[in-house]
Write a structure and sequence with these properties.
A hairpin with a 6-residue loop joins strand 4 and strand 5. Helices cover 0% and strands 50% of the residues. It is mainly beta and 127 residues long. The protein starts with a strand and ends with a strand. The strands form two sheets. Strands 2, 4, 5, 6, 9, 10 and 11 form a seven-stranded mixed sheet that branches. Strands 1-3-8-7 form a four-stranded antiparallel sheet, with no helix packed on it. The mean pLDDT is 95.
Length: 127
Amino acid sequence: QVQLVESGGGLVQAGGSLNLSCAASGRTFSSYAMGWFRQAPGKERELVVAIAWSGGRTYHADSVKGRFTISRDNAKNTVYLQMNSLKPEDTAVYYCAVRRSPYSDEYYLREEEYTNWGQGTQVTVSS
């Protein structure tokens, strides 16, 4: 079983940056594909970014393309979400999620494909 702990959320002004971290423990991290989701008040949870366990392939939603970057350090069992040029509409609780994958270059887009979730970290962007 993989346990996930997110950190790095907070309050930032529009145009600012935050770097979220998701630390995994419990199992071999390197065979797990990972994703970051977010859920704003009154809205459904949505996928923001995803990364294959090799780190070689990534997915970025159109709404964050060019502003957010996902990366991972398998030696540290950690995945990162660098968020730049933040907008008020980025305000949400951000969750990291993982699933074991037999394919080193496969990422996953659907919420139901992920098996383990963190507790979430709040990101608030003021205008």
